[in-house]
User: Which sequence fits this backbone?
């Protein structure tokens, strides 16, 4: 296992358990405590974990309450979705991203590409991209700040967003079904997502299968506006038929179909 893969695994364990000791990690991964300590130091430097004497925990910057809880849900699926989605991006491109737990995992993969321009309403995503040593730029949209998930929303954010044009909008969602398309539970987040779609050449939705066959209060867009859907499991026949009719490229973690 390479150091980067090992550190990613350590970060995922901490996300799932919230707090772990060096001894627990060494036993789980069957590697030395010295190696674990070095990896934790590197992960702490990049802001992915927060060290304490003898172990590490989630950093406070990932938010409190419900959003922090979501960071620990379906971790393996979200990490795999992030790894698949980054294959759609090329160095030098401009990406618009909204706030979400899957988006944070994706931003960590994005930070491994060079000379990107990432425009986001997520303070945490902006931080991750800004720490990349590969000459990427992060633009954080202004607006009303929501502390739980560390995001900005509202007309100020949308107005600033309209100054950008992007190759990709990469969005998380609240729900998706065959009839209503892409939806969200928060009107401000839905409005910002709509603005990102308008400013982008392509739209990629990243979602684990828990979002399928659900209804949320606010529509973001129809399926005909979606370029790619990246998910962990194939959608139901009903949703898949609607996606294919809308010419959406369906990318599953272990099964690519069109």
Assistant:
């Amino acid at each position: 296992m390479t150091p980067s893969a090992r550190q990613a695994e350590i970060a995922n364990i901490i996300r799932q358990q919230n707090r772990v000791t060096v001894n627990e990690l060494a036993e789980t991964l069957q590697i030395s405590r010295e190696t674990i300590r070095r990896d934790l130091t590197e992960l702490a430097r990049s802001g992915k974990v927060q060290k304490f004497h003898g172990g590490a925990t989630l950093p406070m910057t990932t938010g409190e309450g419900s959003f922090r809880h979501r960071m620990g849900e379906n971790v393996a699926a979200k990490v795999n979705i992030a790894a698949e989605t980054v294959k759609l991006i090329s160095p030098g491109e401009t990406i618009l991203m909204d706030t979400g737990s899957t988006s944070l995992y994706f931003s960590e993969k994005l930070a491994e590409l060079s000379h990107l321009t990432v425009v986001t309403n997520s303070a945490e995503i902006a931080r991750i991209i800004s720490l990349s040593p590969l000459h990427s730029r992060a633009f954080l949209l202004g607006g009303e700040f929501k502390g739980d998930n560390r995001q900005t929303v509202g007309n100020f954010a949308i107005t600033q967003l309209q100054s950008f044009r992007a190759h990709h909008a990469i969005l998380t969602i609240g729900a998706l079904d065959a009839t209503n398309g892409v939806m969200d539970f928060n009107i401000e987040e839905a409005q910002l997502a709509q603005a990102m779609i308008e400013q982008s050449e392509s739209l990629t939705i990243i979602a684990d299968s828990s979002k399928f066959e659900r209804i949320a209060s606010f529509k973001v867009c129809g399926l005909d506006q979606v370029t790619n859907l990246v998910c962990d499991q194939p959608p139901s026949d009903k949703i898949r038929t609607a996606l294919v009719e809308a010419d959406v490229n369906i990318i599953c973690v272990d099964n690519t179909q069109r």
